[in-house]
Amino acid sequence: MDDIGRAVQKIKIAKKVYIFAQGFSEMTAREMQIKLELLDKNVEFHDDPNIIIPISNRIKRGNLIIFISLNGETYSLLKSGQVALKNQVSTITITTNNQGKLINYSEIAFIGYKQKSSFFPEFEVHSRLPLEVISRILLDAYAIRIQK
């Protein structure tokens, strides 16, 4: 089974899906949350690092965490990933950094392309289009799978 198929299966069997993202990645995460809710999935989205870390300590096996992170190095997501690994909670990461530490805590990682140059070099405001495309493919595959 390919990674999309495995990820779809993980979403399908999860009692609850938690989506964690910060910064501009929150928009992609929020869209994912709404679409999963429309498909009757129990979903929680968090973007506050002061909430992400404590919540991750409560998540039990049988649930799923989806991390959405452009750089794969966001501190609260890394801490949450470490806890998830320790607690045997399934994880999926959507990122553009194949060297990001978050991948080390992910069962399945989807890596999009990020252009090296930026029109705003002093800020982390690269396009989230790769994250949006990956999440859309994953959600469409999930919708198709549950309607069969």
Description of the molecule:
This protein is α/β, with parallel strands linked by helices. It has a single domain, classed as Glucose-6-phosphate isomerase like protein, domain 1 (Rossmann fold). It contains 5 helices and 5 strands. The protein has helices spanning 3-13, 25-38, 49-58, 75-86, 129-147; strands at residues 17-21, 43-46, 64-69, 90-95, 108-111. A 5-stranded parallel beta sheet has the order 2-1-3-4-5, sandwiched between helices. Helix 2 (25-38) links the parallel strand 1 (17-21) and strand 2. The two termini are 18 Å apart.
Count all strands and give the number.
5
Mean pLDDT: 91
The Rg value, from CA coordinates, equals 14 Å
Give me the strand/helix succession: HEHEHEHEEH
List segments where confidence is low: pLDDT < 50 over at least 5 consecutive residues.
Answer: none
CATH homologous superfamily assignment: Glucose-6-phosphate isomerase like protein, domain 1
**Count of the separate structural domains:** 1
Helical/strand content category: alpha/beta
Quickly name the level 1 CATH class: Alpha Beta
CATH topology: Rossmann fold
Would you identify the CATH architecture? 3-Layer(aba) Sandwich
Alpha-carbon distance between the two ends: 18 Å
User: Share of helix among residues?
Assistant: 40-55%
| Percentage of residues in strands | 15-25%
Q: Determine the number of helices (DSSP H or I, runs of at least 4 residues).
A: 5
Please give the order of strands in the largest beta sheet.
Answer: 2-1-3-4-5
